[in-house]
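User: Okay, second chain of the day. Same drill as before: sequence in, structure tokens out.
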Amino acid sequence: MLGSRLCFGQQQSKQVIPLDTIFSLSERNSTHLKLSEVAIGIKEAAVEVARNSLLPSIDVDLSLKHYGDGKISDRNFSNITDAPIPDFGNDFSLQASYLVFAGGAISATIEKSTLETEVAALSHEKNRVDIHFLVAGHYLDLYKLYNQKQVFEKNIEQTDEVIRQVEAKLSAGMALDNDLTRYELLRQNLKLSLIEIENNISIINQHLVITLGLPEETVILPDSSVQLVGEQRVLDNNFLQTALDNRQEIQIQNIKKQLAQKNITLAKADLYPSVALVVAEILTGPILVEVPPINKNLNYWFAGVAVKYNIGALYKSKKNIALAEKAYVASNIAYDAELEQTATAVHSAWVKYSEAFEKLATYKKSFELADENYSVINNRYKNDLVLITEILDASNMKLNAELQVINAKLDVVYQYFKLLRETGTL
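Assistant: Same drill. Structure tokens below.
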């Protein structure tokens, strides 16, 4: 009960928010976009880690030891004698190496990490476009629901007026109980529909409030200027080419092809030896290679070339290379499939966009007819030539026709955004 009182007692804050502001808030506060931004940072850090392979490696080793005396014996373990060894021993080494060749693995790894960063950036851009389309759809749905609410509230008012007149006629014996029951049932159905509309408004408003990061008590009221978006019909100016140039899904698949190619390079790199330049400084003592041991330090250095080759790669790499090549073939097929899907999606969006204008023109004509009909019935009603039910029916037809025009305008906006979404330019 306390929770309910707190909920209903919470002060609501109604705000008329333009769609541009909705877009800006979604970019700033969407958790999905924040997550993809973090993913970009992770991939950028991975590039820096890959570039560490271009830097020389420096190893330092220091150890201090206590030696026990040794034993010397014949090969058959007879004639055992003590071999004193100095108690204290030390080893120090400083070695630097620089990898100069690894079969192209270093550069391929860096390039692969860079490509993965580009994929993360494109995924973020795709998420931004998706978020724009999502909030735009909710925003337009909210506008439609508020229009429906207005129409149903008007219908309830008119139905109440009819009920009052029917009750008066019923008292005068000029109407039947069935007439009153019919209109009371109509009023109850209208009220139930109004409750459903208000609940849907609450649900969509909550979705938007959470996505936009607004205070929980915010009630978003759509700006009527959204009807003007895409009002001028855009002619077909090669939207498919626009999609091929800008659609993030195509760009991502194209980069994945390049990534698959880099994986082939990495798989083949095992077939080559690794070559490194090495420089070392070593200090050790005592000198144990002499018998008896010499209790002195031996210091020396060397510089040279280290070559390392994994012989097992000769029979292991073939399968790895074959796997990478198959993945490359799959990436090409995925790219072609994305091109086909893009062509279908853009064509469908363009057809629906054109259809929305045709529907708008039809609903505008219907509204003109409903408006003319209302004018005629209204004049007759003023001259007591028709009943109030007829004028109410005519008024409802006009309201519904007007609602259809507004919804058709909003559908034009939605289909325009859908077209932009499919071309990757929203």
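Confidence is low (pLDDT under 50) at residues 1-9.

User: Thanks, on to the next one.
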